[in-house]
Design brief:
This protein is 40% helix and 16% strand. With 219 residues, the protein is α+β, with helices and mostly antiparallel strands. Among the domains are: 60 residues, Winged helix-like DNA-binding domain superfamily/Winged helix DNA-binding domain (Arc Repressor Mutant, subunit A, Orthogonal Bundle), CATH 1.10.10; 75 residues, Ferrous iron transport protein A (FeoA) (SH3 type barrels).
Length: 219
């Protein structure tokens, strides 16, 4: 059994490893968790003693096979609970993250298996993130960032990179959700903003900050 804090550290290392080809640095973890680097170092030593991470001072950290399985299992539970909260309890997609952060630490495998069955084995959460399978396998996602798209092609929104309440509320305000279809009308070199038009809907100018936080697939 592992503490909530230990599971949170493993989950964060797993998340950061996706965007870092090398070991994850202590400072990156500290920034993500909004804590001191010295506190991170202390926790990494504990996790290394439990054979959950490979850690060497000044060289960063990576998950062991055991640590990876635990992290992916926590992610799986988090995303399943988000689906349950949105689909069954009718929470909005901007309301579920903090609640799922609490529910993800429930230890009962039987409960999570029944939850998965009840939800009919969903493959993505309300934000479009893939839900890991029980064996730890994570479905492949070949989406691109909206900022990388080209004009006059139709794209479908597949995922959001930023799950913050303010960003999700911004998307809601402009009627952009998972599976929304849109086309890029124009792109502006000055500030990397773009004009997009929702299929069957309105046009909107999106900043680079928005377009680099939305993933799409070519339709």
């Amino acid at each position: 059994m592992f503490s909530h804090s230990e599971e949170n550290y493993l989950k964060v290392i797993h998340k950061l490893a996706f965007s870092n080809s090398k070991n994850v640095s202590t400072n990156l973890i500290a920034n993500e968790l909004q804590t001191k680097a010295s506190s991170v170092t202390d926790m990494l030593k504990k996790l290394a003693d439990k054979k959950l991470v490979n850690y060497e001072k000044y060289r960063g950290v990576s998950l062991t096979k055991k640590g990876e399985l635990i992290a992916v299992n926590v992610v799986r539970k988090h995303r399943l609970w988000e689906v349950f909260l949105v689909d069954t309890l009718k929470f909005n997609w901007d309301e579920v993250h903090d609640v799922a952060e609490q529910l993800e630490h429930i230890k009962s495998d039987q409960l999570i298996d029944r939850l998965d069955t009840f939800l009919n084995y969903p493959t993505i959460d309300p934000h479009g993130d893939p839900i890991p399978k029980k064996n730890g396998e994570i479905p492949f996602n070949n989406s691109i960032l909206l900022s990388e798209g080209i004009t006059n092609k139709i794209y479908k929104v597949s995922c959001v990179k930023d799950n913050s309440k303010s960003f999700l509320q911004f998307l809601d305000k402009h009627e952009i959700t998972i599976n929304s279809e849109l086309t890029i009308v124009d792109k502006f070199d000055f500030d990397d903003s773009m004009t997009v038009k929702l299929i069957g809907g309105h046009s909107i100018i999106l900043s680079n900050k928005v377009s680099t936080n939305v993933f799409v697939n070519l339709k």
